[in-house]
Amino acid sequence: MMYRIIENSNGHPLKDLKFLVKGDFICSACSLGKLITKPSMTKVNLESPMFLERIQGDICGPITPSCGPFKYFMVLIDASTRWSHVSLLSTRNVAFARLLAQIIKLRAHFSDYPIKRISLDNAGEFTSKSFNDYCQSIGIVVEHPVAHVHTQNGLAESLIKRLQLIARPLLMRSKLPSSAWGHAILHATSLIRFRPTAYHKFFPLQLVSGREPNISHLKVFGCAVYVPIPPPQRTKMGPQRRLGIYVGFESHSIIKYLEPMTGDQFTARYLDCQFNETIFPVLGGEDKEIKRNDIAWNATSMSFLDPRTNDSELEVQRIIHLQNVANRLPDAFIDTKKVTKSHILAENVPGRLEVPEVTLTQTKAFESQIRRKRGRPLGSKVANPRKRKEHIVSINHDANVSISNVSEDKIPEVILSEDPKRNEQDLDDSYEMSINYAHNSLGWYRKEIKMNDIFAYSVAVEIMDEDDNDPQTMEECQHRNDWKSWKKAIQDELDSLNKREVFGPIIPTPKGVKPVGYKWVFVRKRNEQNEVVRYKARLVAQGFTQKPGIDYTETYSPVVDATTLRFLISLSVIEQLKMQLMDVVTAYLYGSLDTDIYMRIPKGLKMSEALKSKPRHMYSIKLKRSLYGLKQSGRMWYNRLSEYLIKKGFWHNQISPCLFIKRTESVIIAVYVDDLNIIGSPEEIRQAADYLKGEFEMKDLGTTKYCLGLQFEHTKGGIFIHESNYIEKST
């Protein structure tokens, strides 16, 4: 062809040659070597006016410095009204749960406007099978743009840019650090809802609600706000308000503000607050300005989930499972409404109990229901119970089980026949009594079982369970068969307290001081076979009587969570590391108190002869060290352990403060209160254990077999985890 030999220095034919056929100009080299991105076609005129018909979403981040635990934020925007929603995320892993929760919320609030399409990028959190299955089950079409072509998700991308353009000036004008970007982003989202867009003369919030919004509650971001002091913290002649930093609102009647000294977030009633929009307080106080990356945002008052727990993931899986069940059985719930109670078979009612008949020479009046140790049957009602006729019952005398020593208060109550026409003479040991059961929460149904069967079973359970539960008081311990073991445990606890010098002198209670109470807690420690290996008595203080600001200040103490524990288990299997569990004996007693605390004199504590004759309630004992039950005990122990491990070369960070790592020896110590899980090679574990034994009294429990309610079985191929003990206790 002629155009192949007519080429210029650029290596391709001249496009303007008149003898070339139209549409015949294709150059492979130019197609591969040149790329000019063409602008996307405007789709404004093609948008459907229906609200929520199409939603776009995207994630921005990671953002440094982090805003407390949050490093990302996710946006959702409606293509019709430009209504938007923003969620702060700690990790991208929780985006799926937050998105699903928002979809459920929108469907509940705007049931007349179904969500038809949702456009998201190709990130893994938006392409999971669980998310696609859920959207498909409720009729939502999930759309994904071409990879790396952001213009196809333009609304969400544009919203992220607008939020950043608004949030930056908000932070710059206020005196908040850059790590408070989460507050600014959320406030910017609220402001955008009150702004008309380029495609609508109405506000997005106005288009959604159908009425013009009220903006009288809007204030300048970061300005001073004077909020009421809670009544318990006020004094007669003291201030009634305190200074705060305004960072937005939850509703027209509730504002959000930061405490200037700590950066903690609180809420207050709008009408009770006074604003000064010309003053912008500084975090840390007037004389001390916190560096812009040092703020620690406390989000406890907000509903954002912490990704370090899997509660949100479990909730999402539960929702998806229920949705799938409903889809597989579309008529199941409708059909059940057509069936009356008399036509439903009691399929789940237990059969006759195979329990030997027992001998009972005395008679007893029975009424009400069988006493249950864990609540009553589903669907039962306790209001206005019907009285049942008393009957004299005679039980078979040929049984081998003797319960002649059973006290009357141990005899369970049994439901008898509701038919008042039956005579007492007709009741014998083979008489079939009617027992009510719940069935699928649809009503009460009947099942016939023998009177003496259920009676014998119930009495046997009471006898077996008498010593199965841990005692609640010292008096209860004294009446048990294992009192000697409990007595030794009580003495061991008192000896340990004296060894740690927990108690100060016994003195008359100072004037104006209300001593805290105490309680003995009795627990039997069990091994992985659910066998009792140790009797443990613990003297605890009743910390609920402590007053904040007087008896304590801070209480938070971090512990290893389930997610971190799963990671450590995986790490030990992959790297073929060992896991060893150690227990700190009376760990809380190592913490020193920073305030004066007095406690009532506990039972079992030896007193001098001079004090025995004086009224016990007028005296109290001063605590020198933290005791179990005090609000600050956990924090005092953690600080003590943390200081020692850091001194020994371990380090930890704010994200996982319960993990102490020593890089030079490649050993990890995971802390859960007084249980320390050491992970590393055998030599590294031994050295770390020596560090701990040199400072604290430790119990070496060997290879980790039981931790946080989980049972571990170490095999050559890995670690098998199960909860057999928990299942046995539950059943």
TrEMBL record:
Tell me the Pfam families matching this sequence: rve, RVT_2, SH3_retrovirus
Sequence ranges assigned to domain Integrase catalytic in this UniProt record: 45-212
- GO molecular function terms here? hydrolase activity; metal ion binding; nucleic acid binding
Some GO term, biological process aspect, for this entry: which one? DNA integration
Q: Which UniProt keywords apply?
A: Hydrolase, Metal-binding
Look up keyword Metal-binding and say if it applies.
yes
- SUPFAM superfamilies reported in the protein's UniProt record: DNA/RNA polymerases, Ribonuclease H-like
Question: Which PANTHER family does UniProt cross-reference here?
Answer: RNA-DIRECTED DNA POLYMERASE, TRANSPOSASE, PUTATIVE-RELATED
Listed name of the protein? Copia protein
Taxonomy, top ranks, is:
Eukaryota, Viridiplantae, Streptophyta, Embryophyta, Tracheophyta
